[in-house]
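=== RUN LOG ===
request id: a7f3
mode: sequence -> structure
chains: 1
length: 334
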Amino acid sequence: MRAAGGALPQALTPVYPTVAQLPQPYLRKAVLAGLAQADLSETVPPEVLSEIGHLRLWDLRKSLSFLHQPTPDVSLAQLEDHSHPIWQRLKAEELLAQQLSQLEARRAREHLRAPVLRAERGGVHEQLLAVLPFQLTGAQRRVGEEIARDLGRVQPMHRLLQGDVGSGKTVVAALAACIAIDAGWQCALMAPTEILAEQHFAKLVDWLAPLLQARGQRVAWLTGSQKKKARGEMLAAIASGEAALVVGTHAVIQEQVKFQKLGLAIIDEQHRFGVAQRLALRQKLTDAGGALLLRRRERAGVRGRPRSLQASPSPQPSPQRGEGARWPPSPTCS
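=== RESULT ===
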């Protein structure tokens, strides 16, 4: 027997998830090399960390180094349930990065321009409110008014509409679509499955078909399973502007779909679409005589962007506070 050479390690030995032929010593060496080379300069001002309290003791480099090489006296339970101060420090870092990126995106959108969309007196928006077989809840009215205000601004709207099943997201989206139609623009609603898209189509046709027919317009249906003739008719209606509202699946974002004037894009259950798919709908631009570049088009040759509304169900079916004890919970908009 031989005595082990060298000093005992002063930290716990990390064990990383790996695959065959990728040994732990190699991973540990690679992680240590990455930590040594990475720019881990502090991103949070010291005065902010001091306000957070115990987090001021952990800068970014110290937190990451400790996570990969924790001391023997550390609470393993705190490391595993992510309640240790180093995890809280890293969570604060990620949250800060997320909030800053959202702020940057919001400021960038403020410099974009979009056509002002307002409902006309006696138009489709007012007519739909008059013929709905039910009264809107207080939350539905409030969210609808918030969206209407956004559509009336010159900056593009980008909102998330969230609510449980049956909370009224569809009627709020339909009222937003009516505002775009009243203003002379088209609206597209994209759903992740044909079954869901068909449910939306049936409901929207029931509400809007009689109102749009008086204007010489219609609700169009577009999916990948359509026959060639039916699909050709829908594509022609979309291109001519006869289709004021287009409901469909991923087929809506295909290259051959050409909108005449797309002003509002609604994405249902947006979390089930990839980023590229959502952006493809938002970038459905139409060249109208060469002077204006759509989606949403702006006057005087200024590049415009279409409005965007994304609808998602709440992750858990729990009642919401603020509108009284009512089920289903009310939709919220952010």
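=== NOTES ===
The longest strand covers residues 262-268.
Residues 285-304, 314-329 have pLDDT under 50 and may be disordered.
=== END ===
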